[in-house]
Amino acid sequence: MRGVEEIAEQVRYNCEVSNASFWGIYSICGLLMRLRSLYRFEKAVEPWERIDTQELMKWIDSKERLWRRLAGAELRRIRAGGRSIDPMDAEGVEEHLPEGYCYGAGYSTGMNPSFFLGELQRRFSRRGFRVSVTGRELVRDLLASPAMSAGGRIYLRMGIFREYLWEKVEEARLSRKRVLLEAFELYGVSEEEIASPDRELDAKIARIAEEESYTLLAHELGEQLQEEVPAELFRSATGLLERVLRSVGDLLADTHPEGRLSAIVEKRSLASLAFYVAGLTGMRRAMFPEAEEAYRSAREGDWSAVLEAGRAARERALRCAARLRELARREVGQQELRTELRRVLGEQGINL
């Protein structure tokens, strides 16, 4: 364990540098959600347990002070086995980890670096990509996405996915969103369990995470295989343009022939489709208005409606992608950019 702990401490520093560079990009609501998640992780608070508000605020205050001190700091190279390794070199770092551990490195919103170190559950190959499935994590940053891709690798982070599903439990409890309640019901989770979550529900959440992990993989495969929104566009895009690009890219990934929607239809999983529809928010929801009606048709046994809806959404996203590629290459001011984005999306019936 000593070798793991030594590397974990170095990764932890880089995670905090990463946090310092992008914690300000989130909305207040989005940031608070991520802070609560990171607090639970660092303090080992179970997902069904209440968080002490005063302790949380003290912890947030200490984090803000730390991130301000680290603002502008450089990432540190990982020192292991007598070598100095670029922190983005996941394979190089993993060579110095004991068997059973996984290190992940990639880029997230705003092209900010993101890192994690966790326990490896299994590895396999799919479509030329090396897929690593992890469980409990030792170190992570504020981003904590259930799945990520980088350098020919796909990471399925099951511990983070379980956290995500617990957040959906909370969302279902507060919003009473019908399609989300139905998604849980299809997995045998009752509204009573959602209203009063406990340790027993955690076992069901773990099972749902395992069952639904194929959808995470399908999304990542769709993202890596689609070429309509090239990765280089994100390197120069910021703010509103980046958010629109990501929404379009996500929809193209999900509607790719090997993406999430195709995988769900192939499996004929109503629960997976319900979770997918419930997870469509903001721009992605606006770009896929047929989704909920298609889900209702699938409940009646008509899965062809899902395929038709997916094709319509994909055509819409493809048209947006073509225009966005042109727009991303132009150097325009923010006001003109916003005007152009409104025009591009308006052509597809989307109000920004």
Topology:
Elements: H1 2-22, H2 28-43, H3 53-70, E1 78-80, E2 83-85, H4 90-94, E3 101-107, E4 113-126, E5 129-140, E6 147-150, E7 153-157, H5 158-175, H6 178-186, H7 191-195, H8 199-225, H9 232-236, H10 239-254, H11 260-267, H12 270-279, H13 282-287, H14 291-299, H15 304-328, H16 334-346
Parallel strand pairs: 5-7
Antiparallel strand pairs: 1-2, 3-4, 4-5, 6-7
Helix pairs in contact: 1-3, 5-6, 5-8, 6-12, 8-10, 8-11, 10-15, 12-14, 14-15, 15-16
- SSE sequence, one letter per element: HHHEEHEEEEEHHHHHHHHHHHH
The quaternary state of the protein chains shown equals: single chain
Find the count of extended strands (DSSP E, 2+ residues): 7
* Number of helices in the DSSP assignment: 16
Class based on secondary structure composition and strand pairing: alpha+beta
**CA distance, first residue to last residue:** 51 Å
Domain count: 2
Q: Overall pLDDT, averaged?
A: 90
Q: Low-confidence parts lasting 5 or more residues at pLDDT below 50? A: none
- How much β-strand is present in the residues? 5-15%
